[in-house]
Design a protein that fits this description.
Layout (H helix, E strand, L loop, with lengths): L13 H25 L16 H9 L2 H12 L2 E5 L2 E4 L2 H8 L6 E2 L1 H4 L13 H11 L5 H5 L2 H22 L2 E2 H18 L5 H4 L4 H11 L1 H6 L1 H7 L6 H29 L11 H5 L7 H4 L9 H15 L1 H15 L2 H12 L7 H5 L2 H14 L8 E2 L5 E3 L2 E3 L4 E4 L1 H4 L22 H6 L13 H18 L4 E2 L12 E3 L3 E3 L5 E3 L2
Parallel strand pairs: 2-8
Antiparallel strand pairs: 1-2, 3-5, 4-12, 5-8, 6-7, 9-12, 10-11
Helix pairs in contact: 2-3, 8-9, 8-24, 9-17, 9-18, 11-14, 14-17, 18-21, 18-24
This protein binds protoporphyrin IX containing FE.
Amino acid sequence: MAFPDSKIPNWVPSSVVAQAMVGILALFILQTLYRVVTNPLSSIPGPFWSRWTNLPVKLRLLSGSKATYVHSLHERYGPVVRLGPREVDVSDVGAVREVHKARSGFLKDPGYYVGGGVRSVFSALDPVFHAQRRRVLGPCFAEAQLETLEPTIVERARLTIAKLGDEMATAGCTDILHWWTLFAMDVISEMCFGESFHMLEVGKKNQYAEDIAEMGSLLPLRGAFPWLIWLAGYVPFFPYFKNVGATRQRVVEYGTARAAQYMRLVESNDSAVRKTLFSSLVAKGGGSNSQQDRKTGSPEQLSQLDITIESQSYITAGTDTTAITLTYLIYAVLRHDAVRARLVGELQSLPDGFTHRDLRALPYLNLVLEETLRLYGASQGALPRVVPPEGAVLAGYAVPPGVVVSTQNYSLHRDGGAYPDAEKFDPSRWENPAPEAKNAFMPFGIGPRNCIGLNLARMELRLCTALFFRAFPDVRLSSKHGMSDADMKPQINFLVMPAGHRCLVELP
Ligand code: HEM
């Protein structure tokens, strides 16, 4: 065998080179085998391929079937299942609570959560910084604080109902997912920037919302192959990913302009300035744009830039989540005549000027809400965390430091022990729930990284459901334009999304 183009000197016999190459290959295979066999995760049950790769679950993440697939692995292998050489999923409630509890040491997996190098309450990894931010921002989402913003929600919800009614009358049916998405965007933009995006009036998303949706659509890809986005910066034939930088830039610029505009209004002492989520912080001197405060990262005193970044994360985390959950709530109610009859009856007993406080006290509405959050809450997929340096024992299995441990509501909320006949949409199961049912229920996450917007989400869900079913007690699912249950099959990547990206309803 000759090596004409190589730099190997002529005096080295080619058979020696070939033997060396075979030797290196053999060593590599042996080392890999050794690592696979001695991997501390090898005692954790899982499919055979999980010893070598996590590619099968990554591909399922992209196709929206990871959560159902991982659930099937739990059914086969038990509450702790291996998904790859350095990855496991846990569905044992005690172990899930261990992972997410305060001071557990498990941090959010940076491959999944951190984007754009900015630190918001959502993306921050450092627990000290995060705790300080939550202390500052938590009160903005307290129920009493949100009551001052209730008129914003009601005004936008009434406009949505009017739009739905118009479209059903003129087009014969309407897409509630589309309109609830615009509703949620308008509400959160007004709550962050003091002025709604007015997307409901226009009937479609603005550029900012499109940009945020585009960035969100890349999350599964980023979660599966974080290096791909990095690589895209260097490889010229990835124009799609190259646009991401420009999109992100546009989002920051637009948010900055909106926040600056709001601060100018506040400083002008205009009495017409609308309250925002951040009003109490601004009143205490937050939101300043001085050079000293500009640097993002000061946890106690939020600068204008911090408020812009936080707003962006609320718009990302608080729009589709609310719109999708609300859409599934209506869909589930419309598929169950007895549930609809009882809910509509209860809502019709409300006085005309009802408030969110009245809705909080309605028994059946809240049962329907809990059951929707169990089966159709928007967050059903993996919430990945990294095992701390000291390692962990989860449901009896030792898990070494650095391993990614995920938990998923899809499995927790379908645990037959906690929820008999788990696939059945049955609000009455929450009338007198067993401790197991309460324990496994985590639609908004648990612990210090739970959802900061959960009070806002529940408020929006209650108000919209009440206004919708009072306005349209006889509404039904439509079969126009080929709409069927297949359109509502949940696809789960980062969030749940109906497979058809629509939910059409009509009046009789
Ligand atoms: C039905 C609606 C919603 C659902 C089901 C939901 C669910 C969740 C879940 C499960 C988490 C935990 C994520 C994790 O542990 O990795 C979370 C976190 C978060 N959510 Fe929500 N969410 C909803 C609405 C909202 C709204 C309206 C807002 C906005 C204002 C919001 C803002 C956030 C933020 C900022 C975090 C990160 C909190 C932190 O890490 O400290 N969410 N949400």
